[in-house]
Batch of 4 targets.
Target 1
Amino acid sequence: MNSLARSNNIPSIGLSSLDELWFQVAGTRCNLECTHCFISCSPHNNSFGFLSYAEIEKTLEESIEWGVKEYYFTGGEPFLNPELTSILELTLTYGPATVLTNGTVLKSESLKKLRTAEDQCPYSLEFRVSIDGPTPEINDPIRGERTFERALQGVELLIEHGFLPIITMTQTWDDSQNETILKQFRQVLQDHGYTRPRLKILPRLQIGAEQQRTAGYGDFDRVTLEMLAGVDESQFICNHSRIVTDKGVYVCPILIDSPDAYLGDSLSAATTEFPMKHGACFTCFQYGAICTNPSTKAIE
Amino acid sequence: MRLAFFGGVYNNYLALEAAINDAHARGVERLYCLGDLGAFGPHPDRVFPFIFENNIECIQGNYDHSIGNDLDDCHCGYTDPRDNHFAQISYNYTLKNTSEKNRRWMRGLPTEIRFEFDGVRFLLCHGSPRKTNEFLWESTTSTHFLEKLAKDYEADVILGTHTGIHWKRQLKQGGFFANVGVLGRPENDGSINVWYTFIRTGQDANDSTLDVEFIPIEYDHQRLITEMHDEGLPQEFSETIATGFWTTCLEVLPGKERRGGQY
């Protein structure tokens, strides 16, 4: 298929409701430099900057009329943002919050405050901790030296404060190994005091650093109109989410490095439908709304 | 007006009978079931006579839709393989043991019911007004999300079930949301009772408009456990009935709701 024919066969997804609002709260700054990061975050990546408490407060207020159901915080590493604890405390007065962290910079003082904030509201504060496998041998080559050990210390700290973190692993092994990996990881977490672990395997996104580590998407790794026939569009997060960054509102957390994913400078300017022309859209098609928590999914 | 609302029955006809008796003792005038008659428990066909004889108006839950249309699974929305494994055992058993006549009846059930009493506009659904299998948990649903639903769907009171745990939230301008709970199994808090919801409107309400009360129901759970065992249903299911803690379908629980359980 030539590029013109393909462009005519690209489905667009409209925003049916703004259920989940994401914040790129730490921009692209991270204390780690994972070799599979789909937006190449690192200590030196300043493509996107921190969001301030004031900016988030303004957006939370704006989100009320949209009927946003849940708020998600990502980076980079969200806890590098010195205002994050206050930001999460504030968010819990508006609705449920989930924070995606690498677990290596968590502090007891902050978690104590957050547990108090969660107890004082009806909402859950979920932590999703990225650990890319049940052993340092699988995890550390991707996430960095000693990161397995440090992230597990973070998990222990979360458990001490009464949280039940969701451990997410980006799959860098064959599908046939999934069951063994899950079993092994459950045991490791049990050994670290997490007796009822919540584990989630995520697919790799072949963009950003991952494109250099392995390979990018092929020309035919694309969603077509035919593929979407009869598919429930709510499996794509662009159907019910947007992400706020310091540079404006983008379509989804995965594509912020793509200029066409920028939709506007406010929520009301970011409701336009989005053409699914990226390779990452194909992964979303294959695996469903991978960014959303299991408690939120409803796929028919 | 005095109204009773039952959530997922999950084949637990013993709890359904106990809840109906309780509602009648409270002077109930109308009874509703918000869907998911089957799943989990024994003898699916024993539920239907109670529904028909008591004129209980029913909504079609995802389970009723699947059983009614002979689909391959329950479309419960689980993503964890272990949850799907147990859900499939329960689904296959219920499909096999529900009569053609009852399946046909479930096929024709509505996905929402609307009515108005004493100036209060009710909207009954299974998961949410916009999607039958949407989970609306207390800890993952913002108040302004519910207020938008009430506005978009032009209702004062929205009632749902599906998650298995009851909760309620006052909305602005007199609006109200409640998850009415389920009769099928306990709520993952170590208590063996199940729950339904009793609502009084107009002159029957203590305040001027609306009273929403969650009612705990005790029933012969030992008999249910024996029947589940005799029918070859998984020991994991009867453990839930015996202990009040969920042993399956855990992945979809948000952190706060899961913290109250044992697994």
Note: Confidence is low (pLDDT under 50) at residues 1-6 of chain A.
Target 2
Amino acid sequence: MAAGRNIGEPVLIAEDVSLSFGGVRALQNVSFDVRQHEIRAIIGPNGAGKSSMLNVINGVYHPQVGTVTFKGRTRKHVHPHEAAEQGIARTFQNIALFRGMSVLDNIMTGRNLKMRTNFLQQAVWLGPARREELEHRRRVEEVIDFLEIQHIRKTPVGRLPYGLQKRVELGRALAAEPEMLLLDEPMAGMNTEEKQDMCRFILDVNDQFGTTIVLIEHDMGVVMDLSDRVLVLDYGRKIADGTPDEVRGNRQVIDAYLGVAH
Amino acid sequence: MFYREAGQFRTTYAADQQIFPIRQDRIAVVAVLLVAFVGVPLVGNEYWLKAILIPFLIFSLAALGLNILTGYAGQLSLGTAAFMAVGAFAAYNFQLRVGGMPILVSFALSGLCAALVGIVFGLPSLRIKGFYLAVATLACQFFVVWALNKFPWFSNNSSSGVISAQAIRILGYDFGAPHRILGVSVAPEVSTYLLVLVIVSLLALAAKNMVRSSAGRAWMAVRDMDVAAAVIGIPIMRTKLLAFAVSSFYCGVAGALYAFAYLGTVEPEAFTLDLSFRILFMIIIGGVGSILGSFLGAGFIVLFPIFLNTYAEPFARLLRIELPPGMVSNLELVIFGGLIVFFLAVEPLGLARLWQITKEKLRLWPFPH
Amino acid sequence: MQFFFEVLIGGLLAGVMYSLVALGFVLIYKASGVFNFAQGSMVFFAALTTVGLVESGMPLLAAAGITLVAMIALAVLIERFVLRPLVNQPQITLFMATIGLAFFIEGLAQGAWGANVRGLDIGIEDAPIEWISDSTGMAISKFDLAAAGICAVLVSTLALFFSKTRIGRALRAVADDHQGALAVGIPLRQIWVIVWGVAGFVALVSGLLWGARNGVQFALTFVALKALPVLILGGFESVAGAIVGGLIIGASEKLAEIYIPPVIHGWFGVTVNGLEAWFPYVLALLFLLVRPEGLFGEKHIDRV
């Protein structure tokens, strides 16, 4: 657990969120909050609705009931584009990188919202477009340095091993300089070393940039070490919410994971 | 051993951003440009200029347009010829109805008209994807050509429906007539060739610039995974419509040049579905998502029928087979069709990728690895 | 009013012909997930081969039989040289490959048999049915009715085939999930040959009917393009949809041809014709905006 940070007021509040697809109830009356600068984990068995919750937060899914308040603005339906503009960035469970582009270009797309020149200026290139491109290239290179992926910056992402692709995806999210970062199983499929690297990056991001982080993770060791507070979902419902230690000892959580009938 | 980057260090991001970061590439490009701008006009004969180089440049421009829409932005379009037709007819009408309109302005405006039509027929792409979109573009192709045919206003109420394109005149210089400049005789096709070359080069440079900036990245993001693109804040609607607009602009200018600098006439029959397919083949064979690929594909599609026409007969005679008349055009269809399947299966990124692989091998030459 | 019905019924019957071609598309899409742009060329190839054989002295049935064998051979070649190399590619790539295939088959057909227009007589005349024209004054062709009948038989047979037989079920499994079908032991390659062979048979029937009606000529390949709006209306995966879609397109096309030009004349003072060149596509386009998956198609939900 990282100490010495100022965990602030709630920056994200989900109230009574319910989401269904046809007959399938993905989320039922889930309410929780996320405080500024904290690292919040969402855990639960498979199919508990964790990814759906992230999707609701950044507007990919629209809940039938309930609201999400981010930085004081309460919205029922948010478009993903708007969520990005408000400062939310995310990574996906099944890597959502742009396969036709190189690592550098993928991370540069993360800067898209900050680019101001239009296509005509870019067609001419000399002048504002070139300056802006170089300026953003500089910032992206900082992200690349931070994530230690300099050696693959020109490689098309489709050719990279899984672990590196996940790192590039994190880079693309970081390039947007988000206020809140949603990470969907950032360590899935990684070996111990890669996991340690990823943990280090996540802690550094939270520490150096103060980014609020919400992450879904299955590795309990990681969750306990990294997070300030943990939310536990099961079958779309919230069954526990508190510090890692509180959650670890919670009877319901243990039952959910061990599969006791309830 | 010649194509080596050893010793070429790029110490600034600006140097890395160049279109041709490797010195040997820069030398090669300068050589090509010299040949194109100086060598060809000096040496080229009428046939090569009129029947090969000018159409090659015009089709390259149309292929560039389609590549931006289909190759970079991932929106499959079968309506390329319709946008070219809009450009051709718009240029004709601007020249006809606006007194004293400079022809370059007509060309630019015709591109804008095509861009507007492109945006209208691109609107469905916000709801429809993949080959559903291809069918929507077919609607554009058939409707536009029908409208240009049936509404006599477009062809100035001409009874035959075939109208001559006006002469190209810039600042008094008539591109359709021979001239003497500094004691050198300049044939009309040389003047026309240089004009088309300048226009196509500038537009190709603009395309390359757009494609390596945030506009191009936004297109590719929408192509590769539009949900993720939306999540990182790329405006999907604006990106798709921009692709349609820019692409149609390029096709419109290509269409205007096609009518004014090549065919000499402005007729709807020149812009059929068959032409749309040919341009699609150009980008499949040349390389989707590649500026160079547009040129390579156009070159191939322009040169191959000529090659076939010239060598099919002698080759058949060599094998003592008799070729029935019209067989060569069928052979063309068979070989093109086969090549499309071949390229899609073996090298979906086309000739451009094969060229890239060649360059990578050249970097190692004469060593095998 | 009577004129309206005459146009309507004529359109519906023409629509039946579109449905036939669309059927071939649906078969292949249902079983291999490929949108076969070459279906029209296959129709053309089948018609041309039959006519070519008939002209060289063979009786119609024998010619049709040999053509069927040729279509099956074509199916085998397509599976080997087009489908297998492209097995895991995205749909768009396969679609473009079938465009290439279409050109290939057209060149082959014309190269083998020449490019002249030929007539084809399959024994049914294109004359009005006497008792209908005597009683109602409407001219409805025997030929069209016969075509509708043949189509109905074909469609019911195929529908039964898909739902009741083992192979039919296997085809549906393959359409849903190639990997899954392989995992339960369904022989993918054989299935594809069967499907493309059946589609070839449908192409043959369509080719004979269309060829008898309009003459066997290159324009037949454009019929395939008309099948696209049919499929958009009906959904790519539904046999019933192909029928309904064909009927709607056929009827609306003919009605548009009659009733829209006067309106245009009123607005613009211009006399136009030939609306069937674009009307079905615009109709399909408008339809797509409202219901992208067609009347009978299934909605796709993407998991993120």
Note: Chain C touches chain B through 47 residues (CB under 8 Å).
Target 3
Amino acid sequence: MTATAGGSEKRSWTATVRRAGLRALPPEKLLPDEQPVYVASWVYVFGVLTVAALIIVIGSGVVLALKGPAWWHVSSVGLFLNSVHLWSVELFFFFMVVHLWAKFFMAAWRGRRAMTWVTGAVAFIVSIGAAFTGYLSQQNFASQWIASQAKDGLNSVGIGAFFNVLDFGQMFTWHVVLLPLGIVVVVLAHVLLVRKHGVVPPLPARDSVTAESGDAVGERDGR
Amino acid sequence: MSARKTSADETWEGGYRPYDLVKEFVIALVVVGMLTVALAGVFSSPDKRAVTIAQWSRADPTDFATTALTELDGTSTTATYGPPYNTTPGAGQKIGPISLQRLAGVRIPIETARDFVLAPLASLASDQPALGRALRVYQQATDVQRQRWTDAYAKALTHATFRNGALLVPSGDYGPVEPIVARLVAFARSGGLDGALVTHSQFYATDYTKPLLFMADSTYLQGLAQQEHLLGGQWGMTNETGNFPGQSWLWLYTFWYQISPFKTSTNADALIWAIMAILTLALILVPFIPGIRSIPRRLPLYRLIWRDYYRSVEHQPESTTGA
């Protein structure tokens, strides 16, 4: 609770937002130095590994963007940076998919954590779009072929009329600005939701073995 | 009752242990950074050079001429594609009775005869009177006459040879089509057509729609893709040139193209997109889908993840573990 010198509560928008933020995510929740005892498996590492790989993806992508899309074709340093970008993307997806499956098998949406799952799944989908536009922005044979093939799928449902994979300029802008921004925003929301709600506890020890109707239990899962 | 230490809204009410999140993150960043640098250093990344129309027309002038002729007579894949490129009657994939492709309309208008053949050559006509005359004759001819010339030339191209920089076909009545195609071949081989297709109205250009559509109509590009195991029947986009991992996360999308009825359906793209849209939505909404959200409870995999926890609660008396 914030009070003025006179004792009355501050009513500014800024103070209201700060109070709401602190209520939702007090510092001890935002950066906890302890976790429930059940958080004791290597599978938990894949979330932070995904974020770490994303940082490498963005870092290498920023350098490639600074030098322009043609640089890596003519520079050995550029080729190395492109390789770092490629392999960090491969690792990013590997870590993310393991993380996703692990959270699925933990039914990690329980206890008002549905939005945590939703933001995670959306991050996965947006990441596929970002990687796809990255392949289109390579300016090599793979880009040409992927563009010529992917256009048919996008055109078949009307998307290609507005999202033209044969237009390098459009795809490059999506790849270096719009989709990375989308990923960062969604991942940030996802991580804050994880911090807010905490790591989902284990399924009931005996229910889990004997439950006849998962749905009956699951009715409360998505709330 | 179950032995657990969680409240009704799945809030943990049991014990905690020290956990250094920042340290874990820093270690993860260092490990992933080192792993990435090692992979990049050892394996590098693929970069098969982009194909140009000049390269195509030099490597396979007959294929280029044959493709150019289909652009001129309006029988190429692009010429008959439908939306978003043109208004070919009946073209456009459907999902049931609905064609989203047609609903989106023609947003990237392409008329292949004009855009791929006649307009690029018209830019040369001022210096080449014979070419100018051929273009005028072709444009002033009736559709029937044009088709007679292009049909005859299409047959002649099946016997074409290329010697001393010129496309040689058996003699016949091809009207202006022969000089038009011959000049386009020469223009393409010089590299001029690559530029003409991307810079028709302004100096700066980033839109490669026309040259890519032109090349995609050829068998040359297909052949190169087949060598690199990139065709749709070879799992297409999940692969990458050379021996590098591609977009393996697209495996499910590509999978549908490998099986019937999609493998042979004329609406395969639209149907597969519809399926993937539903599956994507289902993935996002897993917590709300009865049955799907209960799968984890029916599989013992979570007991592996939380094995220490279950071992501890299942070896304690009920009274000491109940919430």
Note: Residues 21-43 of chain B form the longest helix (23 residues).
Target 4
Amino acid sequence: MKIEGKKRLWQEYQKEIATDNFFYVRSCVRQNFFPAAEQIFLRFMRETLGKSVYENPAHTTCTGIGYHCDVVPFNTTMTVVARQFSLMAEAGCENLAVSCITSFGLYTEILETWRHFPEIEEKTREYLYKATGREFRIPGNLAHASDIVYKLRNEIAAKAPYRLVNQFTGRPLRVVEHIGCHYSRMFPHKGIGGAEYPYVLAGLVDSLGGEIVDYPERRHCCGFGFRQYVVRANRGYSLSCSKKKFDSMEPYKPDLIITNCPGCPYFLDRWQYVVSEMQGKTYGENGHGIPVFTYEELAALALGFDPWDIGLQMHQVSAEPLLVKMGIAFDPDKKYLGRNGENFGRPEKPHFLKIDLDGLEHQVNSNQYSVTSNQ
Amino acid sequence: MLSLIESMEVDYYKELGLDVRFVEGLTGCIHCGTCTAICPAAEFYNYDPRIIAETVQTRDSDKIRELLISDTIWYCGECMSCKTRCPRNNAPGLLIMALRALSVRTGLFTESEKGRQQLVMKRTMGEWILKYGYCLYREEMTIEDHPEQGPTWEWQNNNLDKLFERFGAKYRGSEPGPLREIPPDALQELRKIFDVTGALDLFDFIERKSAEKAKEMGLEFSEKLDCKYVNQIYNLDSGTHTKENI
């Protein structure tokens, strides 16, 4: 094929991503389970990369999980989202940066709906005005926060003291990248690489020197399924989907999993713990699980932020095996301490899944390991 | 706004057509089965999205009603893998969303085990959105109900204020940040939006229809989240939904 033709073909898989002056909307799931991921994203965007990211504490849930649990009507959801747009316009911003994949998919769905059915947009404007007296403008640019990290990946890599390379072997670390379903399944042209060749996370991994693992169930859903997790009677669906992925990726010996949806790291982390409790089965090396990261956590780790400021102690599957392999300087004794050294006690240990530095003694004792400790 | 329907004389196909997701989700199914092959729910449950598209395509109101009272429409996880793969640009996942919405606004959701779970959705995230401004709120998630959280969850819960402080945030604070308290006027706007767009009426309707079903089933029903009816719909798995050997 001629180069021109190739370029044209791949244009479908590109998207416009703003590079500065963002209005940030948070994720319900991330705030509850990985609150530090959002904090560290804002910190490296502002402090390391010098970007302007504004947020208004009056923004709310987009209602996305309620919408996909079929209890919040579409009109309601569209009007709540229109209110977020109104807050953004009020702040004088045009570039929306979205933390959540469910939200990003929903914002995309709503904008596409309005494009195809202008009368629905008009009706939403009426609802919003009647309910709140507000008006809104459609964002000039809509990006998921992982799109923005992708866009800035080479800048991040250039400033990063750490790379995705195994310090013991010198080989690239093997990375499973898991894309949230609502990133591009509904509207492939709104995601980098579309739904067929999503490159949004793989691009970051490439820039940091890692190696992507291509395994059979790479594109399978993590199993959230909304009502399939929320209701206890349905939860087997969620666990089964994640387990299918773990079993499929295990032979490829991944060193880490990276995700862009807030829900996926939660399920891929917690269900590894559940499989270990139910079957005594662990998927990582030395009795550990496969560490699961969000893209913000991984970028921040490479940039040299303290793992415990990034919130890696909020994970049930410990991050230590990866920290050791990357040669990251960290103090294991500070994992469960407060900012000023207050002692919070420690969580109980799971029955089978190894946590912290347990089982990694042979690597810890290696002089290549760069752990720093006060003790 | 799509209206609540209590009449028995309904053209269910016509009602589906009022939902934009139905309009967008069906462009003509060729029964190739690609959606079923890719569907995570079809692997786990007795579920076949191809049949959903085939059924609604008949335009037969009685057949559509059969779907609305069935467990079948509640198996989908709304991952939308079907949308990506359909060679004719149908989206069975969107059809499911339109069918579920119709099942709720006709009250037919109470006719199936999985459909009755909508009361849980209303009483958890439906009410949490209005109370907190978040779909999920960790203080409402107990370790007894969510043992998958693991021991780290309990440790986190005992130290939330200090953990958030470590992350440069204030738990339930007023400034921008994770799990800040959403300002009262913002919550008020949210409630008004729910009112104007009919969500509050829908919530009341779900309560009323669920109360009627509880009476019919002889189960205690109250406003409490742990009344017998809610306990049953939240926990009951009759074992008839999944494929063999799962």
Note: The mean pLDDT of chain A is 95.
